[in-house]
Hints:
Radius of gyration: 24 Å
CATH superfamily of the largest domain: DNA-binding pseudobarrel domain
CATH topology of the largest domain: At1g16640 B3 domain
Strand order of the largest sheet: 1-6-7-3-4-5-2
Number of helices: 11
Largest sheet: 7 strands, mixed
Number of domains: 2
CATH architecture of the largest domain: Beta Barrel
Shape: elongated
Distance between the termini: 63 Å
Structural class: alpha+beta
Order of helices and strands: EHEHHEEEHHHEEHHEEEEHHEHEE
Amino acid sequence: MTIERFNIKHTMWRKKVDNSIFSSGHIVIPKAYVKQWNIALHFRDNGQNAEMWPVNIRFGPKLYEGKVFFRPSTKARSSVQHKILIKEDLIEDLKKAFLMSHIRWLEVELRKQGGKRSGQATQETERETPFWEFLDIEYDNKNKLFIFTDYFKQDPYFPEVFKHLIGSPKVKQIESSLFNNFENIINQDWKEKHHLTTELGAKNVIYFLLDEKNKLIYVGETGQDLKIRLSDKEHYKNAGIPNWTHYRFEVLPVGIATKARKEIENMIIRAYATLFSNTKDVKSIKISNYKLVNRKIKN
């Protein structure tokens, strides 16, 4: 049972988490909250058909950049509209916070790809997985600051699996395929070695290894599954980083083949050699006490 909040400092709107947050990053502000938050007073039309104003958004401990969008009325459209526009970094963090809503949104989009109308796909999916999650939104008009709080959430069926899935390349590849955006490079954060066993969709990658104890760093590339590549203990013994502790990687667009991937790897290795001490004594500014152990460093 969720206990109601008592730390609300400003007029709060409890917004249902829906597809619009994840798909477009647009949050339409209801007219009642436009009035209570004095949005129209702070964000006025300048004579254009649409205008945007920068604002800050706080979600948890982090501060994000956002905008307020204002659409005035016209002869063809009598309604005035205000939206909060959020950027990709906040969208990604909201996906992680609302794991179940994010997965359900992907299910709706996949059904639409299968020929279902938008309304039908949404109704079917929500009927089969009936739950709601809510995002509390406050507005501090003195500081032009929106405050987001993920308070009412549905517990994932398998929480650790869901958390890992949301950030995996496989889910990001599904999203890219839904929105015809296959050419993006998919970035990953540093992870501890034990996470490798559950990695999904890590193919055609440039990867980075760290040995935290011995302060070593290594750059590599592979077209095969990263789990298979990094399971070769003998290779990393010969490469000079047998006891690596952390990894991260970039999934390259599908159009980038072996030759181009190797050139990208060489470029990154050479760039790293100018920043870290290295095996070829390439002149570097040594930004840390880590050493680059790659042997194939181009002059």
